[in-house]
Amino acid sequence: MKQNINIQLITAALLSLGGMTLLFCGVFIEPEGQIHESLLIAFGEVATFAGALMGIDYVYKRKQ
């Protein structure tokens, strides 16, 4: 059980950081025709949201 919670925390942190990085890239880096900024922003939002949900779940599991 402890191992799964640590994996969940690491995954949540990586998803959040990756999502924020993609959001930054989608807003401030001009695409060269390969990846459209709306795709980077959409995936960044989804990854950040998933990471936040996993982090919230981790906090509630840790309190029990």
Structural description of this entry:
With 64 residues, the protein is an all-alpha fold. The protein has one domain. It contains two helices and no strands. The longest helix is centred in the first third of the chain and has 27 residues. The protein is elongated, with a radius of gyration of 14 Å. The mean pLDDT is 76.
What attributes does this structure have?
single chain; 64 residues; mainly alpha; 2 helices; 0% strand; elongated
Assembly context of the chains: single chain
Cα radius of gyration in angstroms = 14 Å
Percentage beta strand? under 5%
Euclidean distance between termini CA atoms:
12 Å
Largest sheet: none
Mean of residue pLDDT values: 76
Low-confidence stretches: none
The dominant shape is: elongated
The share of residues in helices is over 70%
